[in-house]
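ARCHIVE CARD
SHELF: 3
SLOT: left
DATA:
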Amino acid sequence: MTSVAGSTSVIGTGPVAAFDEAGVFGFADVQAAQQLAFLGGATDPRVPLAIALAIRAVRAGSVCIDLAGVREAIFESDENAVDVSALDWPELADWLACLRDSPLVSVGVDGPPGRPLRLVGSLLYLDRYWRDEQLVRADVDIRRSTPLVGADRDRIAATLRAVFPRVEGPGGLAPGEPDQQRAAAATTVATRLCVLQGGPGTGKTATIARILVVLATLEPDLHIGLAAPTGKAAARMGEAIKDALASIGDADPAVVRRLGRLHATTVHGLLGWRRDSTTRFAHDRTRPLPYDLIVVDEMSMVSLSLMARLLEATRPDARLLLVGDPDQLASVEAGAVFSDIGALVRAQDPAGRATTATRELLGRLVDPVDRPALARPGLVRLGHTWRFQGRIADLARAIRDGDPRRVDALIDGLGPGDNVTFTPVSRGPADPAYATLHDRMLAWGSELERRAEQGDAEGALAVLDQHRLLCAHRRGPAGVATWNRIARSWLERSGEEATAIGEPLLVTRRDTALQVFNGDVGAVVRTPAGRRLALADLHERSVRFLAPVQLTGLVPMYASTIHKAQGSQFREVSVVLPDQGSALLTRELLYTAITRASGAVHLYGTRAALREAVSRRANRASGLAGDRDDPE
């Protein structure tokens, strides 16, 4: 049981204690609930229980707790599911009634401000997240409904056709198939919000690059900001856009050169860090960002609070292009805001703000064949796959659709030439079935060490991207800590220091002065100056060298969590699935894992765990969009 000094009787003897004993709560959940209950003079033990659940919900990734469905929710303690069916849950109607009577709780959308919690129906929020959610809802509603174009529409349409020429036939569009990329460009030109969704290989980066060319051609003085949630994702975004720009053969060279000088940064960096605050930024409503167009990639990794701060800092007349794959894992912080925004735009607008003028304008900017892609102003989903073929793509689609029977059929039909393998294992890390993983890791680690010993830093970093071992958990038999130990022992490094030549290292602590970010990966290589950590500088397309002692928080990286790998791409990935019953087994986790691979995926686990992952969606409670399963 979590021990909190000075616990009041309403905590110490009430339902919070029983739930804590069952492993539902952490120390901070109980401590904060106790403090709020004391300050609010709560005497009903159901009030601190609801408070602790709301705090825990945020810690688990939700922005609120739905008290009507909380008994069916999966709770997690030490990354294992907690059975809460035997706990004594309050009766819902009485529970909601006591919360409505509490001075700690503001009730309804029109309830008074300034209280720490807000109850809307059966959704209980910490008030900060309620306010962020309302800000995002209002801003999205306004942005998607207001046309922006004041220039020559015929010129815009001609520019769209020139930059997005229609390609039909093998490898291109089918006759009559809408050009979703051109539709996305029209939406970005014509309105202040475009939500661009798409899976791997659907051409998101190519679409961004061509949209930039269209707008830079139409508006030469356009000020553009590029951002992504992490430093690594931002660097990859900038690199990918430069490559895509170089492939646009018929674009104005001067426009391409100007766009090629754009520098992508993190969303936090775009907003401007403040030393006196961890939640506020240099740019906000009173000092908005100077950009006419802001493009944010890898949006699935953006939290609700960060999205709210970005919208606050974006000028009302600026365009916003939000890009990502909504089927991937959501942010490690609270909210699944990219999925929510997509669902919000898909939903019928009760205020009728998706104006006829907006629809008519968009329809005039594209050819008739493309108009079905503009059915929901503000949202375009790329469905045509230009690359990412084979069994990986088939498996990704089956997982995304939540179809375990299709996944079973695909696994059963795998052959020697396929780029997906499934190895059944049932005895943990000691299972002999892991022999293929042993051989793969040994070959990868040996090549990494060979390149590092030769001082070939670029070659060593290239090897890092050839293979990645992915785990759902940080700890436990299927966790990163276990598999890091095993991989080091396979490579006979278990007794060596973590800065041995050829050691792959993960940065876990940001160092702004050195421009090193949490999640950066490098390798220890031999240099004339001694052992140095080689890190890729993707902005400059070069290698940086740092003495390992310059950095704190370096850990061996033979395996990483799937969350850490998000935003990265590898030629091959090996995925160790946790046992059936893990709270982390979701289709979003599995989909994210296999779509990290461009060449081959190797799955290790049980069929039961695989089916469970495919069948279960990540459950992040939110009031922003209601049901995210609305049909496309």
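SLOT: right
DATA:
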Amino acid sequence: MVIPRKAVSAATACAAAVGMLLLSPAPASAEVSPGDYRIAFEKNDAEVVPYGGSTARTDIRVWPADHVGMQWDVSYAGHSSGMASYEIRNLRSGLCMQPKNGNTTANQRIEQTTCSHRNEQRWHVSDVGNGAQQIIPVKNTQLGVTLENPAWNGSFLKLGYHNPSNPDFRWRFNRI
């Protein structure tokens, strides 16, 4: 049986393409997966911690030095708006991150409170490149977590209108 030359060439090209796909490394991803993290503000590496302790309704801030309560559990909480959503829970207090009193409006501080699994405590963690993420409330995706004073490494967290290229909304999730 004689196989036409064109068929052999096409088969060879297909085999070569499949081989190249199999040997190509998967692209690197900065997506956050469920697990335990220390969350740092990218501009100054100050890390997220509840201000003054482990009680409910405590405002959350960043701090430049190692401090008790800087570890957070990020757990999958479902999908919303076609994106994965997460609950962010402090490992020391067992309390969840949410906008103050559950209000998802601009300039609202972020606090920790009893976990309720409501949308107020669900967050999108969106990859914005170079290993950084934005933390976006499920209830208002126009907003993102930033600092009241991004130049101060002891500032409180708040919600503001986010932009993927704005460095004031970039966070690093460092797995522990």
